[in-house]
Amino acid sequence: MKIQSSPSIRRMPTYLHRLFNLRASGQEWVSSAELAEYMNIPHIMVRKDIAVAGLSGKRHQGFKVNGLIDAILRFVGWNKSTSATLVGAGSLGTALLGFRDFQSYNFRIETVFDADPRKVGHEIHGYEVFDIAEIGTRLRQSPPKVGVICVPAASAQAIADTLVSLGIKYIWNFANICLQVPEDVIVQREVIAGGLAVLFAKIRKNESGEPITED
């Protein structure tokens, strides 16, 4: 499946972060120029992103902060609650469990599983860690919408197979492996080294005097 305007989608959380802060400070209106300055991107790019979200502003006033927040939440799909289970409570999984902004995005991690007996039965950031052997028993009757995989690459495919067998159709994969799943299952793979590669490409361009452009 091809998702249109992927760079725009990736910028939406940053817009929301700024808009949430503006709302908390009592600001009711925001201009695209103000957002462009905050994001350090061209003014026209902000206007295109907001248009993709389906909102038009008022001349000389810009956009209502609350209206823009609502439009972005609807566009991304964060206007309704989405349940998830996380498998792998290691360093990365623990970091995700501690990421409180998920609450703002209506992304609700309900269960956490791990194979390490030193973690099972303990809490991490308020989440109880269950034995991975119990995943079928705990999730089969009411599987969450999303499965988050934070296990080593060697274990990721087996975990994905288990999640799919439980009826989970959406997987957020942080393992460094291309998962093999049925056609009706959607996988979003996050490659941390990919971001590092982009950074180093920018370093190389900057040090050679080439212009750096954002998508």
Characterise this structure.
The chain is α/β, with parallel strands linked by helices and 215 residues long. It folds into two domains: 6-75, Arc Repressor Mutant, subunit A; 82-193, NAD(P)-binding Rossmann-like Domain (Rossmann fold), CATH 3.40.50.720. The chain is 42% helix and 17% strand. It has eight helices and nine strands. The chain has helices at 6-24, 32-39, 43-52, 65-76, 91-97, 135-139, 153-165, 192-208; strands spanning 29-30, 63-64, 82-87, 107-114, 123-124, 127-131, 146-149, 170-173, 186-189. The strands form two sheets. The protein has a seven-stranded mixed sheet with strand order 5-6-4-3-7-8-9. It has a two-stranded antiparallel sheet with strand order 1-2. α5 links the parallel β3 and β4 (107-114). α2 (32-39) crosses α3. The radius of gyration is 20 Å and the shape is globular. The two termini are 20 Å apart. The model has no long low-confidence stretch (mean pLDDT 92).
